[in-house]
Amino acid sequence: MMLSHNAIKDRLKAALDLDVCTSKIVVVGLGVTGISVARYLSALGFDFVISDSRDQPSGLSQLQEALGGIVAVTGKFDSELFSKASHLVVSPGISLTETAIQQAMQQGVKIIGDIDLFACAVDAPIIAITGSNGKSTVTTMVGDMAIASGKKAGVGGNLGLAALDLLDAQADMYVLELSSFQLERTTQLNAAAATVLNISADHLDRHANLADYARQKQRIYVNDGVMVINIDDPIVLKMREKGRETLTFSIRNKADFWISNEHNQEYLMHGEKSLMPLTDLPLEGRHNAANALAALALGTAVGLEMDAMLSALRAFKGLAHRMQCVAVIDGVTWINDSKATNIGACVAALQGSDRKVVLIAGGDAKGADMHELVPAIKEKVTKIILIGKDAGLIEHALNGRVPVYEAGNMKEAVEIAGEIVMSGENVLLSPACASLDQYKNYQDRGDQFAEAVLNRMKRTIASLSENIKAAI
Q1: Which end of the chain is more exposed for a tag (fewer CB within 10 A), N or C?
Q2: Do 328 and 306 fall into the same domain?
Q3: CATH number at residue 368
Q4: Which residues contact 428 (CB under 8 A, 6 or more apart)?
């Protein structure tokens, strides 16, 4: 349920001191989130200025035309403009350490994010999901579970549509993926059920250290909703609060949602009740079993029907660029895991593989310590092909433990992989790094991998066809 505009404005005034008549608002950053904020504030009747450090941010002219000539200050972040504001609505892609933002904060300017605006607009339950890895998968799983249960659910946030673009008066619930950047500028979220799936090193170019990163993730649990806790992760386990309603999940130990082994068959469990064989889950890897358990716990916390949730799990095919099988060529499976933009995701992909792997990795390490990759690479990787600006960091961390090849681009990496891989192995693109050093985003990186693999497959088929013709 979405509140009326008047009710929303009353909440914004009470919670954030945002007033249509008196507030001086600057929307900082004109990406997907900034555009959604601008449209939303305009619909409520707020005046605001848009600020972006780019000279010509995409979508600005269309937005100004649609909203009637909104004022925009581009090319830099203006300290004077920011300091005269009452509120900065800062997009998650913009670091709060920006000089102009810091100066404004020191002068008492309030910093808010789009999730605060969203939280003040809805009465429907919110399911909130964060973590270093798996959050997009779990968010999509829970959204599918809600739909299977006959609920109208808005699904997005850091995934797909921006939160404010999900607002719908008919929504029964919202399922939000939230990043650490969204959470660090959020104070109004009160999720009916929330989880931090796991914590591993990520975004250390934006957070002071791992402890700070974990603290921002922990903000998802603020207020009084059900805490869904991964008891396998020691950092997450410490977030559990006494007196709060909690559901736990584990792939290693007994929990509210866990995995049992009976007669050499593994089952997803809810307490003592067997839910379904793990083999019914279409996704491979123990990390995906954990994702399924987390989704079941979240759905249970808000009253979704168990049979419907299990049906949704059985039908779940996974996400593009997340352990996505691109092709099988001469006994080699080529897998696109471009969404593995941090070490933890790459480690999970390697540990979930039942074959040895030729790994394609590299990109922007975001300040992470690549030595954390070494144990999983030693166990599963026969050869590694490195790409991107921080390839040298990975090579240094490996220190000769596996053969290393370097490639200037994805096409070259795929060609090298095709020459060195052995039948029965996987070629896995799981970069452990962000993509923006060479690509538009991780989707572009994954698409270029898939295109190169499919071109290789076409050549293989053509060669086989020629050989058959010659033999005839």
Answers
A1: C
A2: no
A3: 3.90.190.20
A4: 335, 337, 349, 350, 353, 357, 358, 359, 360
| Distance, C-alpha 164 to centroid of its chain | 18
* Residue where a domain terminates, one of 315, 342, 360: 315
Number of domains within the chain: 3
Q: Please tell me whether residues 305 and 353 are part of one structural domain.
A: no
Helix (H) / strand (E) element for 67: namely helix 60-67
Tokens, residue 202: 């990520």
Tens digit of pLDDT at every position of the chain (472 positions): 678 999 999 999 999 999 999 999 999 999 999 999 999 999 999 999 999 999 999 889 899 989 987 899 999 999 999 999 999 999 998 999 999 999 999 999 999 999 999 999 999 999 999 998 899 999 999 999 999 999 999 999 998 899 999 999 899 999 999 999 999 999 999 999 999 999 986 666 667 788 999 999 999 999 999 999 999 999 999 999 999 999 999 999 999 999 999 888 999 999 999 999 999 998 878 889 999 999 999 999 999 999 999 999 999 988 888 888 899 998 999 999 999 998 988 998 898 888 999 999 999 998 889 999 999 999 999 999 999 999 999 999 999 999 999 999 999 999 999 999 999 999 999 999 999 999 999 999 999 999 999 999 888 777 776 777 777 6
- Give CA–CA dist 174/202, Å, rounded: 26
Q: Are residues 50 and 169 in the same domain?
A: no
- 441 carries an active-site annotation: no
Out of 133, 158, 288, 342, pick the active-site residue: 158
Say whether 151 is catalytic. Answer: no
CATH number at residue 106: 3.40.50.720
Query: Is 200 found in the same domain as 185?
Result: yes
Q: Which of 203, 321, 339, 383 is catalytic?
A: 203
Catalytic residue among 9, 87, 110, 135: 135
Is the same domain home to 197 and 74? no
Q: Does residue 158 have an active-site annotation?
A: yes
Provide the b/e sequence for 409-432 (b: ≥16 CB within 10 Å).
ebbebbbbbbeebeeebbbbbbbb
Token reading at 166: 């999900």
Predicted model pTM: 0.84
| Domain co-membership, 341 together with 406 | yes
What's 148's domain CATH number?
A: 3.40.1190.10
